[in-house]
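Sat 14:20. Reprocessing the chain from the morning session after the first attempt stalled halfway. Input below, unchanged.
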Amino acid sequence: MKKSQELFMLMSVLAFLIAGVFTVQAEKDVPDRVIGAGANWGNGKVYFFKGDKYVRYSAKPDMAEDLMGDRADPGYPKTIDKETWPGLNWTDIDAVVFMGNGKVCFFKGKEYIQYDIDADRADPWYPKPISDQTWPGMIWTDGIDDVVNWGNGKAYFFKGNEDIRYDIKDDMADPGYPKRVNRQTWPGLVNW
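Finished this time. Tokens:
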């Protein structure tokens, strides 16, 4: 009887160890964030960035609205480097947004880089700090979580559980921000 109890205990411990190994392996295979940052360029292309890689998708207006493209363009993912993104010396990008003027802004930590789509390179003198001088009315100077161009002249910056609405044409944050992201300000976005 004692031997069978010891054997049972040994087998139980072994089963827990094996289950733990598979759990740890499964957690390694499921990334924390599938996409690090992404933006629609406004030219039929959508770019997604994660770590040191990026993927370009083709937006197809004839497809269902929720399917921007059926797959990545051939040859992707590619590495973010000086050949693919001249002047963009970063990986692990926090956020990226198309500003609607042929420019895209990349954010990382306390800085941002403005990228010229037509010239296919970062504008000179970047990166610059995120500050009230470079982004008037922006109170956050570090760690923008995400930015989205709403397509109506406004961009929404997100950090933690707050947002700031930014007027692209007037180049300044709208009064009354930041606001909490909640059921009243973003119906359906909270608790999904």
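The helical segments are 2-29.
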